[in-house]
Amino acid sequence: MGEKSWKYVGIDESNHGRYPEIYAAVYSNFDSDIEDKEKPEYPKIRLTKKDKNFNVKMGKRDYRFLILDQHYKRFICSYKFMGIVVASLLDEEIFELPLRLFIDGHLNKLKEDGIRGIVGEQFGIRDEGIEIKSGKDLDRRLFLVNLADEAAYWLYKKPLEKLAKHRKKKTILTDLLIDNFSYTCS
Fold it and tell me: How confident is the model at residue 54 (pLDDT cuts 50, 70, 90)?
């Protein structure tokens, strides 16, 4: 899949808590995409499913996405779940180190450690080789995460039958699901 090396990854989801959820990752090499606007500056633009401007706006960036239903969350501890999602979105892509992830929404230390642990183990990266920035309204403060938000929403509005065959669709890494399966989260 990935023949280009990427510096930054922005991640967001649509339809949080309702299913299906679509997680989108946008890959970029533009330093300007991660300039933090201290106050929300980028509007949440809601493109229609027929809007062709999304691909134009992406420019020399790329994206991938993951469709999840409620069955995936049932037996995976929440602090491990996002690590599985991130690893699945990164699978078969090439990234520069340190791996720089920008994720919309607040992630506590336990969830960040879950991402570092799962992604690090999956791709052979030490903890210090994974940088994570998360936060409320990151999709309105960083252009890269704003694009991920737009991608997730744009994809969410498309028919599931079309998305199932989409060339940029990733699948959940089932070996990670099995390795992290739990009846209880302790």
Answer: confident
List the domain range (segments joined by +) for residue 56: 5-179
**Does 184 fall in a domain?**
no
Torsion of CA 86, 89, 95, 98, to 10 degrees: -10
**Residue 50 pLDDT greater than 90, yes or no:** no
Q: Tell me the CA distances in angstroms from 87 to 23, 98, 175, one per residue in order.
A: 12, 15, 11
Distance CA 80, CA 85 (A): 9
User: Which CATH number belongs to the domain containing residue 151 in this structure?
Assistant: 3.30.420.10
Q: How far is the C-alpha of 92 from the C-alpha of 105, rounded, in Å?
A: 25
What is the rounded CA–CA span in Å between residue 176 and residue 186? 18
Q: What's the pLDDT tens digit per position in 150-178?
A: 999 888 888 888 898 999 999 888 788 77
**Residue-wise pLDDT tens digits, 22-42:** 999 999 999 999 998 877 677
Question: Which of 146, 131, 121 minimizes the C-alpha distance to 58?
Answer: 146
> Could you tell me which of 33, 57, 37, 36 has the C-alpha nearest to residue 45?
57
**pTM of the predicted model as reported, rounded to 2 decimal places:** 0.88
